[in-house]
Each structure stands twice: as structure tokens, then as C-alpha cells.
Design brief:
The protein is α+β, with helices and mostly antiparallel strands and 265 residues long. The protein is built from four helices and ten strands. The longest helix is centred in the first third of the chain and has 45 residues.
Length: 265
Amino acid sequence: MALESSSRRHFHWTRKVSNEDEDDSTFNSSESAVEQKEENAKPISQEPEEQQQVRAQLTRRKLQQLAVSRFRSVLTALGRNRNTRHSLRSRVVGTLFGSRQGHVHFAFQRDPNSHPAFLIELATPISGLVKEMASGLVRIALECDKEKDENKKPGRRLLEEPVWRTFCNGKKCGFASRRECGPKELKILKAVEPISMGAGVLPVNKGTEGSGGCSGEGEGGSDGEIMYMRAKFERIVGSRDSEAFYMMNPDSNGAPELSIYLLRV
């Protein structure tokens, strides 16, 4: 019994010692963990300023890139709206007009009430063109030269070329010039706006009086009257250097009576 009690006392003492050792090891491990955390926290506490500067620079760059991209998108949208407003579809409205003693004007519109996307003045008198059309089919070819590479302006469309060589049924007929549609031409187009297809004469009192190059020399009598022909045309785009407009005539079973070809050679 004495041996058992002494062994128990010794057992409890060794257990107590082992517990104290465990407490010391736990305390030491906790102290080392705290020290390691402090060591790891030191460089972290030193980095935020540099990181903030880097992040600020990146944020500025991103904002600048975002602003530039938005600005470009706005410009692109404006360009698309402009091109949509002045571009032509596969079917357009074509109007031929001019005074009896004046030159021929051709206007192509996206819609009957839209601004002309293409307006040219031919050197051919309208009376001569009327005679050609009365005799049969009329083919009008408009040719322009390609600009040299060093003088070429990027983005110029075929319909924006300023000067054209004119051929009517294979015969050279001088030159044609692209015109801006002014108030006088708009009056004529406004007068024929309700007409979808047909030909006729507009008197001077229809708002065409004093219409410059469209009115000829005289402002009264038959010389001041404006002859016109209006129809729908089918537009065929061969390439960026070639387009064709074919008059759509429901009464004609064969080829179109009037065809206009635009070529950049």
C-alpha cells in the first residue's frame, strides 16, 4: 500500500510536470505566432501607400481609356447618323429636271421628302435629252478619275466625286458637276414631292421662279417652265468604284428606258 501511494504521488507529480511543460510550450508557441504575425504585418503596413499610388494610376488610366472610348463611340454614332441620313438604299427616288433652255439636273433621294444624297448638273440641255429618250433607250455614263495615292483623301465615296465626264449612248457630252442642293433646287423637289412617277412641266408660279441655273435665261413664258421626270430607280453597287441606277418602269417589258452608270477609273 505504501508503494502504491508513493507511485500514485509520483504519477500525479509527473503528470503535473508534463502539464506545466505543455503550458510552457503552448505559451511559447503562442508568443512565436504573435511575433510571426507582427513580422508579417510590418511589410503589409508599409505597402499600402505604394499600392494606393499604383491603384490610383491604374484608375486614372482606366478612366482616360474609358473617356476616349466613349468619345470615339459618340463620333462613330454621329458618323453613322450622318451616313444614314445621306446614304441611299437599293431603291431610290430619282428626279430629272431643268428649264427648257437650261441644263439637265439629276437628283437621287433616299425618300421622296429627304435631302438629295446625289445632285449633279450635266452640260447636256434637257431638250436634247428629251429627244434621246423619245427615240429609244438612254444610257448615261459618268466617269471620274481615281486620285493618286499621295493626293488621295481617305473615305471619299463615289457619290462625293466633284467632276464627271459624261457620255450619252456612247457619245461624249461634256462634263457634269456635283452640286449642293440649295433652296432653289429644294423648291423644285418639294413641288414634285407628291409625284411618285411621271413627267411634266412646272409653271413658274409653283415656286420655281428665279431658280438660278434651273430656270434658264428667261423667267417668263415657256423658257421659265421647269421640265421634270420622276421615277423610282434600282441601285446596284458593283464596288466602291462603280454604281448603277436603273429606272423602274412598270409599263416597260424590256430594258429600262433610262440607266445611269457611275464609274471611277
